[in-house]
Amino acid sequence: MQYASTNALGYDNMNHAETLYIRSTTGRYKVTTDDQILAAGRAAAESLIAPDDPMSNSRTTSAFFKAKLAGLGHECAAFLYLDSQHKPIAYIEHGHGTVTRASVYPREIVKTSLRVNAVALVMAHNHPSGIAEPSSADLALTRHLKTALQLVDVKLLDHIIVTGTSTTSLAERGQI
């Protein structure tokens, strides 16, 4: 099966790329596993945001979440907690789910926001289907989460939907 070059690396097309090698602890090189490649890519995403830079640029934030979530074979809800200058405090994945849904509990997001002393946050989740349009459940969750966070003076800045090749910002669409 051929894959278009615009497809993101995912579990269904990992063997399409050239062979990559990794140096083992003994100093020998061995073929990397698909899991090692994805893990390295997700770790490298940390370099997309500087700890001292405010996350006011939606392109930077979207690129960060795309690097973290694209290619996963299941839905995953992730949150970037921010301080009063919108600088990153913590990145936490709260919900891992199935191919079509991940459970997110606003109560847990509020608790974590208070624990890390966040003033704002950005939520993102991936759609393994490749369709970046928000579902009615996505929009309902965004409304519930925004309302719950407002009660403790935490602002939901954006909810970003990630696919293998694109992102959709609900803030840019005026849906936050």
Strand content: 15-25%
Which structural class is indicated by helix and strand composition?
Answer: alpha+beta
Radius of gyration computed on alpha carbons: 17 Å
Helix content: 25-40%
Please report the distance between the alpha carbons of the first and last residues: 40 Å
Largest sheet, strands/sense/barrel:
5 strands, mixed
Low-confidence stretches: 1-11
What are the secondary-structure elements, in order, as H or E? EEHHEEHEHEE
What's the shape?
globular
Count of helix runs: 4
Overall mean pLDDT stands at 81
Q: How many DSSP E strands?
A: 7
* Strands side by side in the biggest sheet: 4-3-5-6-7
Keywords:
4 helices; 7 strands; alpha+beta; 27% helix; globular; 176 residues
Structural features, described:
This protein is α+β, with helices and mostly antiparallel strands and 176 residues long. It is 27% helix and 23% strand. The protein contains four helices and seven strands. The protein has helices at 34-44, 58-69, 106-115, 136-150; strands at residues 21-23, 29-31, 76-82, 88-96, 120-126, 155-162, 167-169. The strands form two sheets. The chain has a five-stranded mixed sheet with strand order 4-3-5-6-7. It has a two-stranded antiparallel ribbon with strand order 1-2. The termini are far apart. 28% of the residues are buried. Residues 1-11 have low confidence and may be disordered.
